[in-house]
Amino acid sequence: MTSLSEFERLYEEWVERPSAEYRRLVGPSVDMDAAALEQFIQHLSQHRTAYPNIAFWVIFDYKTFSVLRSDGNMNVLGSPLRTKRDLLQHIHPDYLLPYLRWRKGAYNLVFQYADKMRKPLQHAFRISLPLRVRSGRYWWFLINSLTTQLDANHRIVSNLQTFCQENEWPRHNLRPVEAAVFSRTEEESLFNSELTAQISLQLTELFTDAELDLLALYAAGKSTEQVLAVKRWSKHTLHEYNTHLLRKSKELFVYDFKSARHFAEYCRERRILYFKM
What we know:
Oligomer: single chain
Shape: globular
Number of strands: 7
Strand content: 15-25%
Order of helices and strands: HEHEEHHHEEEEHHHHH
Number of helices: 10
CATH architecture of the largest domain: 2-Layer Sandwich
């Protein structure tokens, strides 16, 4: 579980500090000015009426991380959202760091494809997370994040986040933490491949070469006997590595993989890790 001091450390390391210089330079919006934003907000309110599964939406000022506008059932979380920090504190503690890793990958993608990804309302970063609601329990929310305004230098001025409430979060029916990009352009598959590459770069550094070798062997379909022969390990050593891999996979994806082999197969299918052989 994430303590308050641990939350503050993660917030400083993953949110506040990396964005401080960028946010300092953000100027007034020129792409969707104040009048255009008001028109968009009216449309957004009508859209929520047509799609009641949207519990609420929030527009964040990127320079200050404060809430500019919001609408919907804001009482569902049990406390007001005034800043980005308030929202992050509602994320289930086990999911906070995995989410921040995907978030970092998404922003790296935005900066890598600045001429394409920063266009307002064209691309959505989507992820499902359990948020603490008024009752103190956790519910899955499908969260879509979009850039809404840019300044004269194409820096992000504001972001829109919509929250669709799904089912209650069950402790024993978990799903891996994954994110995706949905785009109105033809480059959606490229963006998702690059997003996976971004998360892979982060996660690969968290595994030893020996662990990555073992995952690569499992992903290649090697049997236990073949793994033991290739690595020249005892069954006890292999068991220890399997245990370590399952522990790491649970921390990174908040999911109970059946085995280290199952985790390796998942990584191969999603192309999430770079295996070193």
